[in-house]
Amino acid sequence: MIIKQLASRTWFSAIVTSLMLSTPMAHAQLETLDRISVIVDDDIIMQSELDSRVAVVKNQSKGMRLPPDEILEQQVQERLIIESIQLQMAERSGIRISDQQLNQIIDTIAKQNGMSIRQFQQALAKDGVDYAEARDQIRRERIISEVQRYRVGSTIQISEQDIDSFLNSARGQTATSEEYRIGHILIQVPSQAKKTVLTKAKKKAEGLVKSLRNGANFEQTAIANSDGRNALKGGDLGWRKEAELPSLFADIVPNLKKGSVSDPIRSASGYHIIKLSDKRGGNEQLVRQTKARHILIQESTIRSEEQSKQLINELYQRVINGEDFAKLAKEFSDDPGSKVNGGDLNWINDGDMVPAFEKAMKATKKGEVSKPFKSRFGWHILEVTGYRQKDVAEETQRNQARQLLYSRRFEEELPIWLRQIRSEAYVEIKNEL
User: Fold this and answer.
1) What CATH fold (topology level) applies to the domain 178-280?
2) How far apart are CA 40 and CA 4, in angstroms?
3) Alpha helices (runs of H) in 10-98, residue ranges in sequence order
4) What separation in angstroms does the CA of 333 have from each of 98, 154, 299, 382, 388?
């Protein structure tokens, strides 16, 4: 079992190469190159792995004060022990992250940081982090996250009464209130500015407002003209709840329509221009919904990728030839949540499905069946059965409250669970730090 665990380590090839050398000197060199740091159940942590992780922590500290080396190594070693326990749980439970899933995760991380994959790699290199090692660590962290969600998250139950109580509390009302995404441009004037300076600044602000209302790009206008702190971000102030709005804008923003630009607003700093880029929450939230049903065919131990593709094509032809979609879904679909209902997914909000499914659904007209397509879950065909606009404000508010309550309880339960699995594991520390 230990050898099986070693196969996933970056240093495995070096160990195998050393073991293939038959001379005593080779074994002596192996001992000086690396040694076992900790045994954790059926896994081992090597000293090189511990040293590497400590080095990463130091490189990423960005000048922050770290504890003495001995304490830091103990903290990192304990973190590796907890990781190992959870990764072994994942192995036993069959939880894995494929290369394709990992690529999607890394692409999302890069985009969230405003980077391409190439720029993300360069940023890691600048911090002294090897991209292959980073991929491995991201995979490990995502697997661990899935284990925690499965073992801890599945035990957390949020009742409708819990949600009602939270929404009726002052904290709940604040947390689920309407939010605004705001763009901001500031035409700055010095304190005690002369009237001619104020007039010039006002005219510039009025000219920008007119230009923006005629279709000029707000972000580019902000970058070129704004003196505000967020100018280089296109003036984006991010999402703000009404209580978090600057007092200067508090009476203006809620009265703006989505996408509209305010008149110039005078303050001691100069003239401000506000754009309401988006808003969410509140008493009305209309969304476009699509009613659809699908058949999912997945690759398995008894069905290859090619066989899965062949089967979905056969089912597509059978539907086109007039066979009942719901009956075929009940018989063949690999989606346990929908197959009992004839593949019915009920009403779906725009953006709720994975990109491949979303794209196929939007390209399919009401009453039509899509051609077979592939998502990360497998091969699908889908039928669109209806469209509607629905006010989901209350539903969104309750879902938001449920997520907030879930996150709070998860953060409370996770440390307890981690202490429990640590106490139940066999841990033998070989290198007393």
Assistant:
1) Chitinase A; domain 3 (3.10.50)
2) 14
3) 12-20, 24-33, 47-59, 69-93
4) 22, 25, 12, 11, 26
Which tens digits make up the pLDDT trace of 5-35? Answer: 333 333 333 322 232 333 333 334 444 468 9
Tell me, what amino acid is at 257? K
Distance between CA atoms of residues 273 and 78, nearest Å: 52
Q: How far apart are CA 230 and CA 186, in angstroms?
A: 10
Domain parsing of the chain, residue ranges: 1-85, 98-143, 178-280, 286-391
- Are 294 and 343 in contact by the 8 Å Cβ rule? The answer is yes
Record: fold of 286-391: Chitinase A; domain 3 (3.10.50)
Helix (H, G, I), strand (E, B) or coil at 299: coil
Through-space distance between the first and last CA atoms of the chain, rounded to whole angstroms:
27
Do 286-391 and 178-280 have the same topology in CATH?
yes
Quick check: pTM over 0.90? no
Q: What is the mean pLDDT of residues 357-365?
A: 94
> Where does 153-204 show beta strands of DSSP type E?
179-188
Domain 1-85, second-level architecture: Orthogonal Bundle (1.10)
Q: CATH second-level architecture of 98-143?
A: Orthogonal Bundle (1.10)
CA torsion 355-359-362-367 (nearest 10°) is -110
Round to whole Å and give the CA distance between 345 and 357.
Answer: 12
